[in-house]
Please model this.
Amino acid sequence: MRMSDYHIGFMGFGHMAQVIFSALDRAKIIPRSQVLFLRRDRAKMKENEQKFGITATGLPNLVEKSDLIFLCMRPQQAETALLELKGMGNLEGKKLITIIAGKPIAFYQKHLGQEIQMVRAMPNIASSVMEGMTILTYGPGVSSEFKSITHLLFSSLGQIAEVKEDLCDRTTAMAGSGPGFVFCLIEAMARFGEQGGLSYQEALKMAAQVFAGASQLILKGQMPTDLIAQIATPNGITQTGLDVMAKHEMEKQFHLVLEAAMRKSREFQK
Ligand SMILES: NC(=O)c1ccc[n+]([C@@H]2O[C@H](COP(=O)([O-])OP(=O)(O)OC[C@H]3O[C@@H](n4cnc5c(N)ncnc54)[C@H](OP(=O)(O)O)[C@@H]3O)[C@@H](O)[C@H]2O)c1
Model:
């Protein structure tokens, strides 16, 4: 079956599902007429129908019509949603992609049966500008067709990487939550500029471009340590700042942030 023949259903249509749908729509991966969605809030369903030009429906119809179902609720809402899904009866032949943080494949198998074909995906917010980083983990028995469809779908959101499931909590902290940590650093740099008299907008743009430019050098193949060596001359300005970073163990501090996020993801496993 070709991607363009698929019918897709979003169970849960909050922030991240909307980002994913918008990216797929922009890339013209799938006609809007082949997309259904469902959320609990009826008023928001109507609003979203108008805004996105796709049809809201009930769960029985969504399950019946969709070849591929995206599960897009919060971890705390997952169990109820899976019980509802199970209540729809036979899911044979349905493909599932879950973006729910923390929940392992075994959790879905427990509720929906061992044979369910599913992919665990962790996209991030930068998918909304096609600069996302999506981490993919395949459940057992995922067909090569399902794998290539998953690649195609998430490639329209940015970059993809595959990891084994034991790395999911770590990569969720890095790639799923990571933008949040980077936003904080950009904000901190911008506030520094503002304190010296730049307008907040000027300072924010400057800081964001510094992060974007530095990232581009690394994405084009240069190593952070080589780049640091290039710009940090002994007793120079950059080196003075780097010395303060070392003194305050910034790497260790940043790892504390990532470890806390990873632990939180692990807590959702149950
Ligand atoms: N936001 C991110 O940056 C990001 C990144 C990667 C992964 N994720 C993961 O994506 C998931 C969703 O996050 P989000 O930020 O999009 O959350 P969100 O905005 O709260 O969206 C959750 C959606 O799920 C719906 N929902 C909950 N229970 C449902 C049920 N039983 N049946 C149908 N719909 C149901 C909610 O409907 P109502 O609002 O109508 O009640 C809402 O539309 C989370 O598991 C999160 O870990 C998020």
About this structure: The beta strands are 8-11, 35-38, 55-56, 68-71, 95-98, 117-122, 132-138, 158-162. The pocket of NAP is lined by residues 11-17, 38-41, 44, 72-75, 77, 80-81, 84, 99-101, 122-125, 176 (CB under 6 Å). Residues 132 and 158 are 4 Å apart (CA to CA).
